[in-house]
Amino acid sequence: MASTHASTSIELVSAADTTTHRNVTVSIADERTLTREQTIGNDPYDLSRGLKSPSEINLIKKNASNTSKKRVNPHAKKAKGNELKNFYEAQNEKIKKLLKSIEEHRNEAKETAEDTALKYKIAVWGSFAANVILSGLQIYAAISSGSLSLFATMADAIFDPLSNIILLLSRRAIKRVDSKVFPSGKARLETAGNITFSFVMSSVSLILIVISARQIASGSEDDTNRFHLPSVIAVSVAFTTKLSLFLYCWALKDIYSDVLILWRDHRNDLFVNGFGILTSVGGSVLKWWIDPMGAIFISVLILTLWLKTAWEEFMLLVGIAADLDTQQLITYICKTLLLPSILNT
Question: What Gene Ontology molecular function terms does this protein carry (predicted)?
Protein backbone atom coordinates (compact mmCIF):
# COMPACT_ATOMS: atom_id res chain seq x y z
CA MET A 1 0.00 0.00 0.00
CA ALA A 2 2.64 2.40 -1.11
CA SER A 3 2.19 6.13 -0.94
CA THR A 4 5.29 7.19 -2.90
CA HIS A 5 3.31 8.02 -6.03
CA ALA A 6 1.15 10.51 -4.15
CA SER A 7 4.10 12.46 -2.75
CA THR A 8 5.80 12.57 -6.16
CA SER A 9 2.59 13.82 -7.72
CA ILE A 10 2.27 16.68 -5.24
CA GLU A 11 5.88 17.74 -5.72
CA LEU A 12 5.41 17.90 -9.48
CA VAL A 13 2.33 20.06 -9.13
CA SER A 14 4.24 22.28 -6.73
CA ALA A 15 6.95 22.88 -9.32
CA ALA A 16 4.32 23.94 -11.81
CA ASP A 17 1.99 25.99 -9.63
CA THR A 18 2.42 26.72 -5.91
CA THR A 19 -1.14 27.97 -5.48
CA THR A 20 -2.64 24.88 -7.09
CA HIS A 21 -0.43 22.67 -4.93
CA ARG A 22 -1.51 24.44 -1.73
CA ASN A 23 -5.21 24.13 -2.55
CA VAL A 24 -4.93 20.47 -3.56
CA THR A 25 -2.90 19.65 -0.44
CA VAL A 26 -5.53 21.21 1.83
CA SER A 27 -8.26 19.31 -0.01
CA ILE A 28 -6.39 16.03 0.32
CA ALA A 29 -5.68 16.67 4.01
CA ASP A 30 -9.37 17.36 4.68
CA GLU A 31 -10.43 14.20 2.86
CA ARG A 32 -7.85 12.12 4.73
CA THR A 33 -8.93 13.60 8.10
CA LEU A 34 -12.56 12.73 7.42
CA THR A 35 -11.62 9.20 6.38
CA ARG A 36 -9.42 8.62 9.44
CA GLU A 37 -12.08 10.02 11.78
CA GLN A 38 -14.55 7.50 10.40
CA THR A 39 -12.18 4.58 11.07
CA ILE A 40 -10.62 5.70 14.38
CA GLY A 41 -10.85 3.04 17.09
CA ASN A 42 -11.37 0.32 14.52
CA ASP A 43 -7.98 0.41 12.86
CA PRO A 44 -5.28 -1.06 15.15
CA TYR A 45 -2.88 -1.57 12.24
CA ASP A 46 -3.44 1.95 10.88
CA LEU A 47 -4.61 0.67 7.49
CA SER A 48 -6.46 3.92 6.84
CA ARG A 49 -3.07 5.55 6.30
CA GLY A 50 -2.98 3.72 2.97
CA LEU A 51 -6.27 5.21 1.75
CA LYS A 52 -6.02 7.54 -1.22
CA SER A 53 -8.48 10.38 -1.75
CA PRO A 54 -10.02 10.93 -5.21
CA SER A 55 -7.79 14.00 -5.59
CA GLU A 56 -4.65 11.97 -4.91
CA ILE A 57 -5.69 9.22 -7.28
CA ASN A 58 -6.34 11.71 -10.08
CA LEU A 59 -2.93 13.32 -9.49
CA ILE A 60 -1.23 9.92 -9.56
CA LYS A 61 -2.97 9.07 -12.82
CA LYS A 62 -2.08 12.43 -14.39
CA ASN A 63 1.58 12.34 -13.37
CA ALA A 64 2.00 8.71 -14.41
CA SER A 65 1.31 9.88 -17.96
CA ASN A 66 3.38 13.07 -17.72
CA THR A 67 6.51 11.42 -16.27
CA SER A 68 6.60 8.62 -18.86
CA LYS A 69 9.31 8.72 -21.52
CA LYS A 70 8.49 10.91 -24.50
CA ARG A 71 9.01 8.09 -26.98
CA VAL A 72 6.40 5.93 -25.28
CA ASN A 73 3.13 5.59 -27.18
CA PRO A 74 0.45 8.01 -25.81
CA HIS A 75 -1.97 5.09 -25.49
CA ALA A 76 0.59 3.24 -23.34
CA LYS A 77 0.92 6.32 -21.09
CA LYS A 78 -2.85 6.50 -20.69
CA ALA A 79 -3.01 2.76 -19.98
CA LYS A 80 -0.35 3.14 -17.27
CA GLY A 81 -2.30 5.96 -15.64
CA ASN A 82 -5.52 3.96 -15.73
CA GLU A 83 -3.73 0.93 -14.30
CA LEU A 84 -2.48 2.95 -11.32
CA LYS A 85 -5.92 4.52 -10.84
CA ASN A 86 -7.59 1.10 -10.81
CA PHE A 87 -4.95 -0.23 -8.39
CA TYR A 88 -5.49 2.51 -5.80
CA GLU A 89 -9.28 2.38 -6.13
CA ALA A 90 -9.18 -1.39 -5.56
CA GLN A 91 -6.83 -0.85 -2.60
CA ASN A 92 -9.25 1.68 -1.10
CA GLU A 93 -12.13 -0.78 -1.42
CA LYS A 94 -10.09 -3.55 0.19
CA ILE A 95 -9.06 -1.35 3.13
CA LYS A 96 -12.63 -0.11 3.69
CA LYS A 97 -13.87 -3.70 3.60
CA LEU A 98 -11.30 -4.76 6.20
CA LEU A 99 -12.15 -1.83 8.48
CA LYS A 100 -15.86 -2.64 8.54
CA SER A 101 -17.07 -4.38 11.68
CA ILE A 102 -18.74 -7.79 11.57
CA GLU A 103 -22.03 -6.09 12.39
CA GLU A 104 -21.64 -3.75 9.40
CA HIS A 105 -20.94 -6.70 7.08
CA ARG A 106 -23.97 -8.52 8.47
CA ASN A 107 -26.27 -5.49 8.14
CA GLU A 108 -25.02 -4.82 4.61
CA ALA A 109 -25.76 -8.41 3.55
CA LYS A 110 -29.18 -8.26 5.24
CA GLU A 111 -30.11 -4.99 3.52
CA THR A 112 -29.03 -6.37 0.14
CA ALA A 113 -31.10 -9.52 0.70
CA GLU A 114 -34.17 -7.47 1.70
CA ASP A 115 -33.83 -5.10 -1.25
CA THR A 116 -33.53 -7.92 -3.79
CA ALA A 117 -35.84 -10.51 -2.17
CA LEU A 118 -38.65 -10.10 -4.72
CA LYS A 119 -36.23 -10.06 -7.67
CA TYR A 120 -34.61 -13.21 -6.32
CA LYS A 121 -37.95 -15.05 -6.10
CA ILE A 122 -38.85 -13.99 -9.64
CA ALA A 123 -35.47 -15.19 -10.93
CA VAL A 124 -35.67 -18.60 -9.21
CA TRP A 125 -39.34 -19.43 -9.61
CA GLY A 126 -39.60 -17.74 -13.00
CA SER A 127 -36.70 -19.84 -14.26
CA PHE A 128 -38.29 -23.00 -12.86
CA ALA A 129 -41.70 -22.31 -14.44
CA ALA A 130 -40.10 -21.36 -17.76
CA ASN A 131 -37.93 -24.49 -17.80
CA VAL A 132 -40.96 -26.74 -17.18
CA ILE A 133 -42.92 -25.14 -20.06
CA LEU A 134 -39.93 -24.99 -22.41
CA SER A 135 -39.01 -28.64 -21.81
CA GLY A 136 -42.52 -29.59 -23.00
CA LEU A 137 -42.17 -27.36 -26.06
CA GLN A 138 -38.80 -28.84 -26.97
CA ILE A 139 -40.00 -32.43 -26.52
CA TYR A 140 -42.76 -31.63 -29.01
CA ALA A 141 -40.29 -29.96 -31.38
CA ALA A 142 -37.87 -32.90 -31.36
CA ILE A 143 -40.46 -35.67 -31.75
CA SER A 144 -42.57 -33.93 -34.40
CA SER A 145 -39.60 -32.92 -36.57
CA GLY A 146 -37.34 -35.94 -36.08
CA SER A 147 -34.35 -33.57 -36.12
CA LEU A 148 -31.32 -34.89 -34.23
CA SER A 149 -30.20 -31.33 -33.48
CA LEU A 150 -33.51 -30.66 -31.77
CA PHE A 151 -33.23 -33.98 -29.91
CA ALA A 152 -29.93 -32.69 -28.53
CA THR A 153 -31.56 -29.44 -27.38
CA MET A 154 -34.45 -31.48 -25.93
CA ALA A 155 -32.07 -33.63 -23.86
CA ASP A 156 -30.59 -30.50 -22.34
CA ALA A 157 -34.01 -28.91 -21.74
CA ILE A 158 -35.47 -31.95 -19.95
CA PHE A 159 -32.88 -31.81 -17.18
CA ASP A 160 -33.21 -28.06 -16.57
CA PRO A 161 -36.36 -28.27 -14.38
CA LEU A 162 -34.93 -31.30 -12.57
CA SER A 163 -31.77 -29.39 -11.68
CA ASN A 164 -33.97 -26.44 -10.59
CA ILE A 165 -35.84 -28.75 -8.21
CA ILE A 166 -32.54 -29.89 -6.68
CA LEU A 167 -31.52 -26.24 -6.32
CA LEU A 168 -34.78 -25.28 -4.58
CA LEU A 169 -34.78 -28.32 -2.28
CA SER A 170 -31.15 -27.83 -1.31
CA ARG A 171 -31.71 -24.16 -0.44
CA ARG A 172 -34.75 -25.09 1.62
CA ALA A 173 -32.79 -27.82 3.42
CA ILE A 174 -29.85 -25.50 4.11
CA LYS A 175 -32.19 -22.94 5.72
CA ARG A 176 -33.35 -25.62 8.18
CA VAL A 177 -29.84 -26.65 9.19
CA ASP A 178 -29.21 -26.43 12.93
CA SER A 179 -25.91 -24.62 13.42
CA LYS A 180 -25.43 -26.48 16.73
CA VAL A 181 -25.37 -29.85 14.93
CA PHE A 182 -22.10 -30.66 13.18
CA PRO A 183 -21.81 -31.93 10.54
CA SER A 184 -25.35 -31.35 9.27
CA GLY A 185 -24.61 -32.68 5.78
CA LYS A 186 -27.52 -31.00 3.99
CA ALA A 187 -25.34 -28.21 2.67
CA ARG A 188 -23.85 -30.73 0.21
CA LEU A 189 -27.20 -31.76 -1.29
CA GLU A 190 -26.93 -29.30 -4.18
CA THR A 191 -23.36 -30.36 -4.94
CA ALA A 192 -24.23 -34.07 -4.93
CA GLY A 193 -27.26 -33.44 -7.16
CA ASN A 194 -25.22 -31.46 -9.68
CA ILE A 195 -22.60 -34.21 -9.90
CA THR A 196 -25.33 -36.82 -10.50
CA PHE A 197 -26.94 -34.71 -13.24
CA SER A 198 -23.54 -34.09 -14.79
CA PHE A 199 -22.91 -37.77 -15.37
CA VAL A 200 -26.48 -38.44 -16.56
CA MET A 201 -26.25 -35.61 -19.09
CA SER A 202 -22.81 -36.80 -20.18
CA SER A 203 -24.24 -40.25 -20.86
CA VAL A 204 -27.16 -38.83 -22.87
CA SER A 205 -24.76 -36.68 -24.89
CA LEU A 206 -22.58 -39.68 -25.72
CA ILE A 207 -25.64 -41.64 -26.89
CA LEU A 208 -26.69 -38.76 -29.19
CA ILE A 209 -23.16 -38.54 -30.59
CA VAL A 210 -23.22 -42.25 -31.46
CA ILE A 211 -26.69 -42.05 -33.07
CA SER A 212 -25.73 -38.98 -35.12
CA ALA A 213 -22.45 -40.55 -36.25
CA ARG A 214 -24.29 -43.71 -37.37
CA GLN A 215 -26.79 -41.64 -39.36
CA ILE A 216 -23.97 -39.77 -41.13
CA ALA A 217 -22.22 -43.07 -41.86
CA SER A 218 -25.38 -44.70 -43.28
CA GLY A 219 -26.18 -41.70 -45.49
CA SER A 220 -29.54 -40.51 -46.82
CA GLU A 221 -31.44 -40.93 -50.06
CA ASP A 222 -32.75 -37.35 -49.93
CA ASP A 223 -30.65 -34.21 -50.25
CA THR A 224 -32.49 -32.47 -47.41
CA ASN A 225 -34.64 -33.37 -44.40
CA ARG A 226 -38.30 -32.54 -43.95
CA PHE A 227 -38.82 -28.94 -42.82
CA HIS A 228 -41.19 -28.58 -39.85
CA LEU A 229 -41.99 -24.93 -39.12
CA PRO A 230 -43.85 -25.41 -35.77
CA SER A 231 -40.76 -27.13 -34.33
CA VAL A 232 -38.52 -24.24 -35.33
CA ILE A 233 -41.00 -21.77 -33.81
CA ALA A 234 -41.11 -23.78 -30.56
CA VAL A 235 -37.32 -23.77 -30.15
CA SER A 236 -37.20 -20.09 -31.14
CA VAL A 237 -39.64 -19.33 -28.30
CA ALA A 238 -37.31 -21.25 -25.97
CA PHE A 239 -34.33 -19.21 -27.22
CA THR A 240 -36.15 -15.89 -26.69
CA THR A 241 -37.30 -16.89 -23.20
CA LYS A 242 -33.80 -17.98 -22.21
CA LEU A 243 -32.39 -14.69 -23.47
CA SER A 244 -34.86 -12.75 -21.30
CA LEU A 245 -34.02 -14.84 -18.23
CA PHE A 246 -30.31 -14.49 -18.94
CA LEU A 247 -30.58 -10.70 -18.95
CA TYR A 248 -32.82 -10.64 -15.86
CA CYS A 249 -30.49 -12.83 -13.78
CA TRP A 250 -27.44 -10.75 -14.77
CA ALA A 251 -27.97 -8.15 -12.01
CA LEU A 252 -28.39 -10.81 -9.29
CA LYS A 253 -25.72 -13.32 -10.25
CA ASP A 254 -23.04 -11.70 -8.06
CA ILE A 255 -25.34 -11.59 -5.01
CA TYR A 256 -26.84 -15.11 -4.93
CA SER A 257 -24.89 -18.27 -5.75
CA ASP A 258 -27.98 -20.15 -6.94
CA VAL A 259 -28.94 -17.29 -9.29
CA LEU A 260 -25.39 -17.48 -10.67
CA ILE A 261 -26.02 -21.17 -11.45
CA LEU A 262 -29.29 -20.27 -13.19
CA TRP A 263 -27.60 -17.47 -15.14
CA ARG A 264 -24.92 -19.87 -16.39
CA ASP A 265 -27.61 -22.37 -17.34
CA HIS A 266 -29.51 -19.75 -19.36
CA ARG A 267 -26.26 -18.66 -21.03
CA ASN A 268 -25.43 -22.23 -22.04
CA ASP A 269 -28.97 -22.82 -23.32
CA LEU A 270 -28.67 -19.78 -25.58
CA PHE A 271 -25.75 -21.42 -27.40
CA VAL A 272 -27.44 -24.84 -27.48
CA ASN A 273 -30.83 -23.63 -28.73
CA GLY A 274 -29.40 -21.07 -31.15
CA PHE A 275 -27.08 -23.55 -32.79
CA GLY A 276 -29.79 -26.23 -32.74
CA ILE A 277 -32.15 -23.98 -34.73
CA LEU A 278 -29.45 -23.18 -37.30
CA THR A 279 -28.39 -26.79 -37.90
CA SER A 280 -31.95 -28.14 -37.93
CA VAL A 281 -33.02 -25.58 -40.53
CA GLY A 282 -29.74 -26.10 -42.40
CA GLY A 283 -30.46 -29.82 -42.65
CA SER A 284 -33.91 -29.07 -44.07
CA VAL A 285 -32.86 -26.35 -46.52
CA LEU A 286 -29.23 -27.00 -47.51
CA LYS A 287 -27.90 -30.54 -46.87
CA TRP A 288 -29.29 -33.36 -44.72
CA TRP A 289 -25.97 -34.09 -42.97
CA ILE A 290 -25.89 -30.60 -41.38
CA ASP A 291 -28.53 -31.76 -38.89
CA PRO A 292 -26.65 -34.81 -37.47
CA MET A 293 -23.38 -32.86 -37.54
CA GLY A 294 -25.08 -30.13 -35.53
CA ALA A 295 -26.37 -32.73 -33.08
CA ILE A 296 -22.80 -34.00 -32.59
CA PHE A 297 -21.50 -30.47 -32.00
CA ILE A 298 -24.28 -29.66 -29.51
CA SER A 299 -23.78 -32.97 -27.70
CA VAL A 300 -20.03 -32.35 -27.42
CA LEU A 301 -20.75 -28.85 -26.08
CA ILE A 302 -23.22 -30.19 -23.50
CA LEU A 303 -20.79 -32.97 -22.57
CA THR A 304 -17.97 -30.46 -22.04
CA LEU A 305 -20.09 -28.07 -19.98
CA TRP A 306 -21.46 -30.77 -17.70
CA LEU A 307 -18.06 -32.43 -17.19
CA LYS A 308 -16.70 -29.00 -16.26
CA THR A 309 -19.59 -28.60 -13.81
CA ALA A 310 -18.89 -32.05 -12.36
CA TRP A 311 -15.23 -31.15 -11.81
CA GLU A 312 -16.09 -27.84 -10.12
CA GLU A 313 -18.65 -29.51 -7.84
CA PHE A 314 -16.22 -32.33 -7.05
CA MET A 315 -13.64 -29.75 -5.96
CA LEU A 316 -16.24 -28.30 -3.58
CA LEU A 317 -16.70 -31.75 -2.05
CA VAL A 318 -13.01 -32.47 -1.52
CA GLY A 319 -12.33 -28.91 -0.37
CA ILE A 320 -11.05 -25.84 -2.19
CA ALA A 321 -9.44 -22.71 -0.79
CA ALA A 322 -11.37 -19.45 -0.66
CA ASP A 323 -10.21 -16.53 -2.80
CA LEU A 324 -7.41 -14.31 -1.48
CA ASP A 325 -9.70 -11.39 -0.53
CA THR A 326 -11.87 -13.66 1.63
CA GLN A 327 -8.81 -15.17 3.32
CA GLN A 328 -7.43 -11.70 4.09
CA LEU A 329 -10.77 -10.54 5.52
CA ILE A 330 -11.11 -13.59 7.80
CA THR A 331 -7.48 -13.33 8.94
CA TYR A 332 -7.88 -9.62 9.76
CA ILE A 333 -11.11 -10.20 11.70
CA CYS A 334 -9.50 -13.03 13.68
CA LYS A 335 -6.45 -10.93 14.56
CA THR A 336 -8.28 -7.73 15.47
CA LEU A 337 -11.51 -9.00 17.03
CA LEU A 338 -11.45 -12.67 17.95
CA LEU A 339 -7.85 -13.13 19.11
CA PRO A 340 -7.89 -10.20 21.60
CA SER A 341 -11.18 -11.51 23.05
CA ILE A 342 -9.68 -14.98 23.51
CA LEU A 343 -6.50 -13.64 25.13
CA ASN A 344 -8.47 -11.45 27.54
CA THR A 345 -10.62 -14.33 28.81
Answer: monoatomic cation transmembrane transporter activity
